[in-house]
Amino acid sequence: MTAGQPSPLFSYIVISYNRPVDTQLVLANIFELEHDPNQTFEIIIINNGSTSSYDNFETYLNELPSLQRNLVNYINSAENLGVARGRNLGITLAKGYYLVFIDDDALFQEKQAPKIILEIFNQHNSPKHEHEQQQLSYNDIGILALREYRTTTHEYYIATKNKQLAKQPQFFTNFFVGSGHVVKKEVFEKVGLYPETIFYGMEEYDLAYKTINAGYAILYSAAITVLHQKSPNGREAETKLTQWNLENKTVIAYKYLPIIYTFSHFIAWSGYFLRQSNFNVVQWWQAFKNTLTKLKQTKRQPISKKALAYIKQVKGRLWY
Fold first, then answer.
1. pLDDT per position as a tens digit, 152-205
2. Crossing angle for the helix pair 20-32 and 55-62, nearest 10 degrees?
3. Entry pTM
4. Which residues have CB under 8 Å from 147's CB, separation 6+?
5. Please, are residues 98 and 185 in contact by the beta-carbon 8 Å criterion?
6. Least confident of 9-18, 26-35, 197-206
7. How far apart are CA 233 and CA 52, in angstroms?
8. Can you say whether residue 115 is alpha, beta or left, with left for phi > 0 and alpha for psi between -120 and 50 degrees?
């Protein structure tokens, strides 16, 4: 954005690691979205310490028409900041009212996504829906969870484990899928950024608990679908990712929930890890030690009774 221009309505934030071709597709996809010509937007791309060459992507970027090139803020980080720190860098640079996060191997299916985002936030934060919000004792939506379609497995990933809720096109929830989600900038200003102690895995839960505790609701909508390729390029083995999830989910439960949920999280995720890893006890023992270390370094910040009641009311996961 150049000096004198109004603040953008949307800030699209993309964290890219070793996926230059996929990142080019994401950028082209965002430009194809139907934006109101009277509303500005920006695109922030963080090259997250990639080891693959981005020369072709940078050439593509520099050859864009000036009107498009001026909308892109491309940051080449010398360090792999991980998911949370990478997003945080994008957040601190973002000037938009709505921050739209999309993975570097994902695309928006609906070209009308910007219009739909505005309609959803305006509809559910308007006075005519006050009675609906009062039932939840929450007055505002802070995060919009989008539907993910995994193109490799042909499955939808929806922000609930409740089978009845999953059939509904829209519902309140207590978490969101990281591959595509929208957060009001004011939420980060009130609750803080993603936890930088987490390199990868479950950082969305940390933000979700803080957001709910601050009095915001999280709404899931199937009106926008993110097509997620789940590209394997530059990523860890699945057992390593599950190990991180086991450690991080347990620590986040300890940080925000009643103590009993710390034990239930560790037991449930240990079982899942052992089954997935073909009972790799050595790696599980390392996860156990890592979890203990992280627990000792974590200060408890239990959410309020009101926030806990919200999670139960929306049928959110608490035990695992």
1. 889 999 988 888 999 999 999 999 999 999 999 999 999 999 998 888 889 999
2. 30
3. 0.92
4. 156, 157, 158, 177, 220, 221, 222, 224, 225, 226
5. yes
6. 197-206
7. 10
8. alpha
